[in-house]
Amino acid sequence: MKLYFATGCVGCLPPAVILCLFSQISPWSPVVIEAIAQVPRSIGYVSLTLTAVCVLIAWSVNKSQKLSLAVFWMLWWSILILGTATSVLALVHHPCFAVAFLAILGPALMYPMRFLAFPTRSSAEWMQAVWICTALAAAICIVVWAPWIILGFPGRQKWTDWPDPIRQLVSHYTITWKFAFVMWAAPPSIAFELMIVALVCWVRMKHVETNTQQNDIERQHGIIASLIKQLTAWLFVLFMLVWVCAALNATGTIQHNQKSEDMRQEVLGLAFLIFLGLALWTYDTLSQSCSHEELAHRVSSLRVVVETNNLLNNDWCRGFILLVGALPMAACIAFDSLFTFVRRTSTLEGWGLHFWADWRWSSVFVKALWLGVAYHGLVVGMGKVTVVLLSVVNEYVAGWPLFTVSAVMYTVALLLFLSPASPAMPIYMLMGIIMTSSAMQQGWDFVPAVAWASFIAFAMKLSFCVVAQKCIGGPCGSSVRIQHAVQIHTPYMRAVEELLIGSS
Q: pTM of the prediction?
């Protein structure tokens, strides 16, 4: 009972503080937020810099020698305190990431409590207490938020409306529209994040229980990998839906003297951090039953890793990596040089250069330049040519009969689609605009005109699929040179073939 009480208090404390100080359901939040908004943004960046410096110091020292318990906990608490201060100071400017970090403080505080207060408890018992209390904290967030949404507050007309003090802060540009929206959605967002933590803790508990009951390490790793893959797949689908909703709601309408902002970048950023956290958590779970060297050997012997390494040995792939990742690679080189300078040794192997140190840079640079020219020539250039061509067609067919316009647009769009570099969106949009306008000029109503344009565009797309598969894919598919060029002989494609035509 003492274990559950302690983990419950620690797990519920950070969400309770967020709901009381930074959520719209609290009457104190406008005062707190207005005070935080007066703090200069530079102080938040200074705090972020100090946090990053502490992390780098801890990583570099731990790489050279094993940290003592006193030094480890001193660095751990310093990073946690500085991270918390940075998140509070960044609430006004980066609310999504700040709230996400503050919500994870509960499980983060359970980590030192595990070693300092309950060192004798078994791992299975500890993980059970953690996932139950974390799920309880998530349920409390929903229970607190639901009555506020259902019952409302004075002056509310829609369930998505904000309280008057929050609207005043937005109208006076004290806070941004994005921050106000995050304050409104904070309780369900925190509950979702805590439920993910509860799920991964439940998976760790099952792994520990299986580890104590069975000696088959391969089967244990298979179970944990299967559970993590299913969780990752569902999270990917969920984040895609959230991203699409964020894109659809980014209409730019004015609310309380501010434009409603786009949340797609925040959704992508949070998704990346969650998937990175899942990967690190999976690695930590699997490393409980085998060493780092053994785990690295098993991963490196996987067929997919071998094929990926073979693919990355191609200079065209390396040129593509250089083209899209030149800035992160430059940052890695700068940090590696700084780290080597600080350590005052030239024999230290830097972590940033180990996978591209043996590249043939002349060939890689040439391939990267050709890929950049091809991208701008095909994607950018072809896109502009397509838009201009469609505009010319629109000018010429403006006064033609509807069925003639439909036939011309069908033929032109089909020919354009045969070029892989042609952008689909302008083609669909112009087909809809031209045919809908032509139909309405001849007395059609708007809905039948849109339905007719949609039908022609759909028929054109299906016709293109038939032409591409029968007239291009069929004849080219029998060529051995083309089969080799598209890598049909690789294990990746053989696996896809087995999945598509296999009896199972």
A: 0.67
